[in-house]
Amino acid sequence: MIHIITDTGSDLPKQLSDEYNISMIPLVVQINNEEYLDRSNIEPKQLYTYMKDGAVPKTAQVPPALIKETLTSYAKNGQPAIYITLSSGISGTYQTAVLMKNEVLEEYPDAQIEVFDSQAASLGYGLMVYEAAKEAKEGKALNEIMNTLQHYQKHLESIFTVDDLEYLLRGGRVSKTAAVMGTLLKIKPVLHMEDGKLFPLEKLRGKKKVLGRMVELMKERAESLDDITIGISHADDTETAQALKELIIEETGNRNILITMIGCAIGAHAGPGTIALFFLNTPKKVY
Question: How confident is the model at residue 177 (pLDDT cuts 50, 70, 90)?
Fold first, then answer.
């Protein structure tokens, strides 16, 4: 069976990674000059507590040696594996993984190891990982799973909003003036992923309007919402995530909705209160 590997930026719920035996490589976050491994020796809720207390966390790539060690463990046992990474548009993890894969192949030239750039973040590529793991468990071939991943990469929609523009200001996503005025006027941006990078889409006043607009955008962009898994991730805001879920059910009838907390890798940049919505704009093809 093909083994699926990902990193903690995928925010895949632990029960799913355990159920499908998915290898999870921890991303690195630095807080108050201390280095932590995401979901290993720090949990997302702890990160958001630090941030609410004024800490300014930074993120770092997975140590190359850890990626190489993981890939080598499958190569030397002759087990095919696919590593699905955080978008290369916002992280260097994909490029590092490709370099490590090439080093592994020098030692094990017959190994079947693939590294796939999700061009997504958080549960966006968590849904890709989940689908790939289901297909691997069904016994599908490596090329079939890669085709599915390419379909997700092309058709996945990712829509975000943040609770506090200050965190986007720190990351250079908005100007200081926009952040100050946005905070005063309670303006909340709606952003989306395009070509693996995050871009502003609209600005609205009030959380309720933002959630309504996120659902409107989903209905506008999706061919069909009947046969897909919809993902919601949140940065320590279960109440709003649940409100979004209920709105989606009310507006679309789709109850196949997965909710998870945004991990340290994405949360360090987006900040507490971030809400993200993920869905395919066209149903998965059957190959």
Answer: very low
Contact 57, 29 (CB under 8 A): yes
Q: In the chain, which segments carry CATH 3.40.50.10440? A: 3-26+62-155
Q: Which two tokens stand for residue 234?
A: 């949140």
pLDDT digits (tens, 9 = 90+) for 91-137: 899 999 999 999 999 999 999 999 999 999 999 999 999 999 999 99
Q: Is the pLDDT of residue 180 over 80?
A: no
The secondary structure element, H or E, covering residue 77 is: none
C-alpha 273/C-alpha 44 separation (Å) is: 12
Q: How many CB atoms lie within 10 A of CB 114?
A: 17
- Torsion over CA of 214, 259, 58 and 178, rounded to 10 degrees? 20
The answer to whether domain 3-26+62-155 has CATH 3.40.50.1980 is no
Q: What is the secondary structure of 138-177 as a DSSP string?
A: TT--HHHHHHHHHHHHHHEEEEEE-S-HHHHHHTTSS-HH
Q: What is the DSSP code (8-state) at residue 32?
A: T
Q: What is the pLDDT of residues 51-105, one digit of tens each?
A: 989 898 988 888 899 999 999 999 999 999 999 999 998 889 999 999 999 999 9
pLDDT of residue 237: 96
Report H helices in the chain.
Answer: 14-19, 44-52, 64-75, 93-107, 123-137, 142-155, 165-170, 176-184, 207-221, 238-252, 264-270
Q: Say which residue the tokens 């600005």 belong to.
A: 203
